[in-house]
């Protein structure tokens, strides 16, 4: 462990690869604290409160949004980071930024924009998240974007096709896309945020699915991971049977989340003990070290398959998804045909189609619906 209290393989902010434009020190804040602060104050972060997770924003006030999801990922990520002596500020920055590029209407919006941009570079929300922090946020006089550290940008770019990685590396040879060409890994902090993201959405999609009535606790009782923690909850608190069913659901999910966090910590420790990386750069040359145990991975995957079939492919969700795709596709066509309907900085862009994709991707659910109705005279989500 070094004098900062971080493990030797952690991302040490004093040894950051830096920003594309040097700005000097922000002491007493570390570089990754500074990144987190910039993300929290960004326009894209505020918009997450009205961007859907599974359920479109107008469907209810109690369902998760991209913002509440990001906060849950940050909480889980810090819970894992502290016992492993990792950089909690970087973990938090990555968790809060990882969905900045998501479109309105979740994956339905992304799929629609990707189809609209077919032959023009496509659309992928991880790449868009990097685009948001590198270019689209316009808050500072000296540069576009947020001018974040390499380690933060590296972790934001969770996935990237080879074609897109090659394009990014042409302008920034040693940038965050390089690892997709040379087969190396991101920081351990980035690896852990990816798994915290998975834990968070599996747990809260169970909660939101039951709340919506689209899945039932009887269905969940057939899923091994859920049934295990339901039985533990009832054994510890038999009176739950006489309480409203949501109490049992909450206690079951609480126990599941805790066990997944402890399992992730323990399995990652075992991997670190096997490989003993000398520092954060040495760790990047190794296979992924953040992982769940095999005993936990299998039932977790079963839960994911259940949610995919029972919730994400539920006829009601699919109906909303289809309408959301239509909204995005028709918005795209309308703006391409009449760029003046967008703000001037988008309408006057040299690449109109990419500017339209950027504009739509930045919209909240409710703004996209209002714009669609304004431009087409139709309300596809009318009751």
UniProtKB/TrEMBL annotation:
Pfam families cross-referenced by the UniProt entry: HD, HD_assoc
Keyword Magnesium attributed: no
Organism domain of life: Bacteria
PROSITE patterns: HD
Domain HD: 66-202
InterPro entries named in the record: dGTPase, dGTPase-like, dNTPase_2, HD/PDEase_dom, HD_domain, PHydrolase_assoc_dom
Keyword Hydrolase: yes
Positions of region (Disordered): 1-37
Compositionally biased residues, Basic and acidic residues: 19-37
Protein family (similarity comment): Belongs to the dGTPase family. Type 2 subfamily.
NCBIfam families: dGTP_triPase, PRK01286.1-1
Protein name from the UniProt record: Deoxyguanosinetriphosphate triphosphohydrolase-like protein
